[in-house]
Amino acid sequence: MDTYTILEWIVGIGLIGGAITCVTSDKLLTAVIRLSLVSMLAVIAFALMASPDVAITEAVIGSGLVTFVFIIAIKQTFKGETKHEKDR
After folding, report:
1. Crossing angle, helix 28-48 and helix 3-23, to 10 degrees?
2. Burial of 19 (0-12, 13-18, 19+ CB in 10 A)
3. 0.85 exceeded by the pTM?
4. Among 51, 30, 31, 29, residue whose Cα is nearest residue 42
5. HEC string of 18-81?
6. pLDDT tens-digit readout, 26-43
7. CB under 8 Å to 35, separation ≥6 — which residues?
8. Distance (Å, whole) CA 24 – CA 5
9. What element of type H or E holds 7?
10. Distance between CA 8 and CA 43 in Å, rounded?
11. Could you give the maximum distance between any two Cα atoms of the chain, in Å?
């Protein structure tokens, strides 16, 4: 096995593991941050597959815009709730 194949396996396992931890996360903000990290791993995977245009699009949309929109949505959802209700 060459270095390139090993790197592909590491990124692939990281994508699967990151997605599982994102879905099983108890807190919404933690899940959003993990989703952003999974998206960054996808950027690396696309770059390894010699697809820089898709990698740049995933970096901008997946890691940047989607994370920003999710964080704003979480803030708006919990606006006006007590601390006990936020800790769910």
Report:
1. 160
2. middle
3. no
4. 51
5. HHHHHHCCCCHHHHHHHHHHHHHHHHHHHHHCCCHHHHHHHHHHHHHHHHHHHHHHHHHHCCCC
6. 999 999 999 999 999 999
7. 22, 66, 67, 70
8. 29
9. helix 3-23
10. 12
11. 55
